[in-house]
Amino acid sequence: MRQVVRVVSWLYALAVYGFIFVPVVVLVLFSLQATSFPIPPFTGPSLRWYEAVLSDVRLTSALVNSLLVASISSATAVTLGFLSAWGFARFVLPGSGLLRGLITLPLTVSYLIIGMGLLVLFNWAGLPKSLLAAGIGHVVINLPLCFAIIYSQMGDHQINIERAARDLGAPEWKVLLLITVPVMAPAIFAGFFLSMTFSWDEFVISFLLTRFDTTLPVEIWNLLRSGLNPKTNAVGSLVFAVSIVLVVLFELTLLRRRKT
Amino acid sequence: MSSTGNSGRALPGTGRALPWALVTPALGWTLLFFVLPFVAMGFSSLTAHEGGGFTLSNYSQFFTNPSYWQAMVNSLEVTAIVTLLSVLLAYPFALILAEQVPERWQRLALMLAVLPFWTSYVVRSYSWLLVLAQNGVINRALTGSGLITEPLQLANTRLATVTGFVHFFVMLLTLTIFANLKQLSPSYRKAAADLGAGPVRTFLHVILPLTLPGIMVGAFLTFVLCIGDYITPQILGGNNELLMPQLVMMQIGRRGDFPLASALSIILMAVVTIAYLACARWLKIERA
Amino acid sequence: MTAPLVDIRAVSHRFGQLAVLKDVSLRIEPGSYTILLGPSGSGKTTLLSILGGFVTPSEGKVFIRGEDCTAVPPARRPTTTVFQDYALFPHMSVGGNVGFGLRMQGVDGATRAAKAREALALVGLASAFDKKPHQLSGGQRQRVALARALVIEPAVLLLDEPLGALDLKLRRQMQDELKAIQKRVGTAFVHVTHDQEEAMALADHCVVMNDGRIEDEGPPERVYARPATRFSATFMGESTILAGKVTEAKDRTSTVTTPAGPVLVRGALPVGSAVALAIRPEHLMLGGTAGTASLGMAKVSDVVFQGSFKRVLAVSVEDASLQFIAKLPASATVQPGDTVAVSCDTDQIIVLAD
Fold this sequence. Notes:
The complex is a heterotrimer.
Chain A: H1 2-31, H2 48-54, H3 57-90, E1 91-92, H4 96-104, H5 111-125, H6 131-153, H7 156-167, H8 172-201, H9 204-209, H10 216-224, H11 230-259
Chain B: H1 4-7, E1 11-12, H2 17-45, H3 57-64, H4 66-99, H5 103-113, H6 121-132, H7 137-144, H8 158-183, H9 186-194, H10 199-227, H11 231-237, H12 244-253, H13 258-283
Helix pairs in contact in B: 2-13, 3-4, 4-8, 4-10, 6-8, 6-11, 8-10, 8-11, 9-10, 10-13, 12-13
Chain C: E1 6-15, E2 18-28, E3 33-37, H1 44-52, E4 59-64, E5 67-68, E6 79-82, H2 94-104, H3 109-122, H4 138-150, E7 156-160, H5 168-185, E8 188-193, H6 196-202, E9 205-210, E10 213-218, H7 220-225, H8 230-235, E11 240-249, E12 253-258, E13 261-266, E14 274-279, E15 285-286, E16 293-305, E17 309-316, E18 323-329, E19 339-344, E20 350-353
Parallel strand pairs in C: 3-8, 3-9, 6-7, 7-8
Antiparallel strand pairs in C: 1-2, 1-4, 4-5, 9-10, 11-12, 11-14, 12-13, 14-20, 15-19, 16-17, 16-19, 17-18
């Protein structure tokens, strides 16, 4: 009986792994296609589509734009999130519960609707579509995330460590720089990393709020209009590779932290 | 968030400048770029597209135009199917990962299972197109093996949209359910076994009820993300059957009709809010 | 003598390379209160898990009521466990928790509720039937866990550091209750702890464990007064330990040469063998009233007033590495810096093979 359960479990797990990996395998495989259609039969391997991607100025500049928007908006989100989390965790403020609720509210709203709202607002205010506008939108979606992660990690233990520092004569700004930030570093780092990946991958807000200079997901979207194309496979595989490197780095730093 | 532990030891903040200096930037950002856009959208939705006077027609259109109404029905149907299927697929998978896979391989097994989760969302949908297209992998395999003579219509269908969604949400739910299962103290399982429950009854009476709140949170997250997503239905479902996000985007893209797009967005939000209120008591199940 | 309720025969267990139990044999009598006492890493919890069926030993056998239970799963052996974190099911009411074992046996709802109420009354929580575990205090949860384990009438109840999560005052109170409940139900209890006071207060049979072995076992009075090994002399209460060598043996006495000088002890010991002499703090005498065995002079280094007595530390003048621990009446006038004669009665010296 136990053996049967085991076998069925393994088969089921394999099937789910298969389902999860089929599209990724197909994507990467046909990015190496030699001919112009990413459909069977496989004619590669060839790197011609990777060359095509790297020599496409629109794609490479979109990649730079994406990195820029992701890093600046994440840094902004994590800074605002950290400061407010610290304020709410350390001080009793009137209406604290409501205000915290307000900060986390965007988590429950679709990106589409956040993007729509900003589009209408900027349209009325006469602000042009730009990377800055998209970056503002990315801070809106990532700020609640950073706040929630950092706030949930600010426990009594950290409060007492800070108290000890104040007791020993550290002024408020030194407490912040020498005690709070280093102690909260894992949460700050996690918030920043998640923001980076979400911003890096975000489509609909960038799509609504940018025009000529745009981010990579939007540029890939434009590429899709040409139908199935090995170039799209190649750029997709590259994005996949970058994400995996990021995730592995994240895992490794987390693991190292845990060991020490 | 654990706020209860903090308040007892926090410092009084009233009448001091520092606490407000800390929280104002975040609050200001939220007010300016989240709340204000909503107000703008609200005003916009009450304005006529032509001329700009006050009107309720943007809302009434939704209820009178059957194709708009149909988009909402489609969205709700697809979201319900996706949520249900994803939970049913992910739960056993997470359970197997947490219980059948040896402890030291679990981290790797889980990381592998959610690896495609970290790839670009747009690319992931496109990958499914490669699999499901008229001349894609599945159709080539089926015609090649002689099982069918004419390729099946797989892309540009509801089936394709659901497949793309389920692919994403199975990974998301596997992550949350796995975390949930690992959080349970191993002594619950031991205690149940000790008191005479076999594996099946331990699961039904102890493990499942204890992970139910986590499942509900995951399902709600799936619902919210799924009903508001534009990419997957647009790439995989095509325009044969419109979902709400596609309808909203269509108003902006083709016709530049911001007021109608605003009204439709607000209606979509209202539906999500109703779903949230319906789930709220599930989401707040007490924990010991 | 009747057959023992539990008979653990030559059990050894390894986790990977690490040997956590080394050839342990133990018998548990019906209706007894057995305490497994030892520091962390001594193997006491592993031994309890083997009894409960959560761990199958690498070697050896476990018999319960004469049946070989070595590989029988927890559900099918007549033991139940009270877990360290209680493991109360948070989604069930207290009544549901206590009735869970009966429900698994297929007992009908009404009988189940009645028995659960009875068990809750036994632990003094009759009114908590409809509450959820999170509404209870730590001590109350502990009692619910006890009721849940007792209601299915096990032959042996296993308790894994059951009082560890409670504060000191509550711990002493629960200690008395545990003992009373055990007497009332008559079930054999096996209780793991690292608290020697708890062990002395509760045990009928005290098993001192260290490094995967049983160092000593017996009634707590005996283990305290006549510890079998150096470890149990220091772990179960404090002792002053003098290392020495037997230099002369007569019919009923031997002379042991120690850093504090020659000491006469009871019993004929083999000449030339190394021994350790242990003396309990309350048996050491400082200054004035000299006992029958002189232990030389010592300089008092510390006097700590502890209410009903004074705890005195003194360093031997003959050997600075030898420290005496004595317990004197609260009225004693000794001061730090005093040099005093140390002695004790020959009868109170415990001779340990070294």
